From TrEMBL:
It comes from Populus deltoides (Eastern poplar). GO terms for cellular component: cytoplasm. This is Phosphoglycerate mutase-like protein 1. It holds the Pfam family His_Phos_1. Belongs to the phosphoglycerate mutase family. One of its GO terms (molecular function) is phosphatase activity. The lineage of its organism: Eukaryota, Viridiplantae, Streptophyta, Embryophyta, Tracheophyta. May play a role in carbohydrates metabolism.
Length: 356
């Protein structure tokens, strides 16, 4: 598949509607649409019966309760995370698969690397990330352990060019994965962690089979691979392709794991199939336009920013921005609350005031 990177767009308006999953985690749409697919890669989504414009967010039960708050919900800040979702840039498998779908079965596309156009897409997204200051906010980059995703991740969120002798390992060595690209420094960049839960569909297609972690460590020295248990790829099978619903279940597991991280603003660099099937579980109780911001296919090197909300008790973080007030201690009751607590004192006080 060959999809050009379009000119970055300004952030889309936030509708802050919860896109729920199992009543515990939900997404709120505040998308940055960086590029749009030129055509759909999967069947269009069927509109869920509850996604009609007359549907309300689950925190309201009637129109009278909404009173000017249509499309709005409030959540405690410490129960949210901002997630920047990125699909890898164009890989060699995208080009060959666009010509002939059977090419995905070719061993020549094993662990597909980025094309020269893909690297230009990376450069464009990097410029956007710096222009809007996203790079200054990201505390962690999580990446699928395949060549094309790691090349994209370090190219977008990594440091500048690497120079021998500096006291930091490079994120990527020169010409890693036939990239013909200079080394990329880890200086002034967030930590990078490779996580297998956010890999593409597993099985059958060689382009989705990874190399050994030992080999990856030699070309991506500053990426942390400690969460990957097996050096060899034991998840990919030549005769069984992971089902869409299995990818979606893995995506839900990934999001729940993501919530256990202490970081509040995280970039995730993954794949079209994984992102599509993971996000399609959200948005059925929202307006169709909001659902479409989340649940459509990702173009190569597209970024979408969303807010992950803990509506249950998955997260245990305490707030660092709330302030308790009333310190030092002292009486501080609004008049209507005081009347409810001790109406007799309020009546007596009112009588004294009338005498004066």
């Amino acid at each position: 598949m060959s999809i050009l990177y379009n000119t970055p767009l300004m952030p889309l308006p936030s509708q802050t509607l919860p896109l729920s999953l199992n009543n515990n985690l939900s997404f709120t749409a505040i998308s940055f649409s960086i590029s749009k697919p030129t055509r759909s890669l999967r069947p269009p989504l069927q509109r869920h019966p509850s996604s009609h414009p007359s549907s309300f967010p689950p925190c309201f039960s009637s129109l009278s309760e909404m009173d000017g708050t249509v499309g709005q919900c409030l959540y405690p800040l410490h129960r949210t995370k901002t997630i920047h979702l990125v699909r890898h840039a164009q890989g060699i498998h995208n080009v060959e698969g666009e010509k002939d779908y059977r090419a995905y079965m070719s061993e020549e596309l094993f662990d597909a690397h980025l094309t020269p156009l893909g690297w230009r897409q990376v450069d464009n997204l990097r410029k956007h990330v710096y222009e809007f200051g996203i790079n200054k906010k990201i505390e962690l980059v999580i990446v699928s352990p395949l060549l094309r995703t790691m090349q994209t991740a370090v190219g977008v969120f990594g440091g500048e060019g690497y120079t021998d002798g500096i006291n930091a390992p490079p994120l990527m060595v020169e010409n890693a994965g036939k990239s013909n690209h200079p080394a990329i420094s880890s200086l002034h960049s967030p930590p990078f962690i490779a996580v297998e839960l956010c890999r593409e569909h597993l099985g059958v297609h060689p382009c989705d089979r990874r190399r050994s972690i030992s080999e990856y460590r030699s070309i991506f020295p500053a990426i942390d691979f400690s969460l990957i248990e097996s050096d060899e790829d034991i998840l990919w099978r030549a005769d069984i392709r992971e089902k869409d619903e299995e990818v979606a279940a893995r995506g839900q597991k990934f999001l729940k794991w993501l919530w256990t991280r202490k970081e509040k603003e995280i970039a995730v660099v993954s794949h079209s199939g994984f992102l599509y099937h993971t996000l399609s579980a959200f948005g059925n109780d929202c307006y169709p336009s909001v659902k479409s911001e989340i649940c459509t296919n990702f173009a190569n090197c597209e970024l979408r920013s969303v807010v992950l909300v803990d509506r249950g008790m998955i997260g245990s973080d305490t707030t660092i921005t709330n302030y308790p007030g009333k310190n030092p201690q002292g009486l501080d009751l609004p008049s209507d609350v005081a009347e409810e607590i001790n109406p007799s004192q309020v009546i007596a006080c009112s009588g004294e005031m009338n005498q004066h």
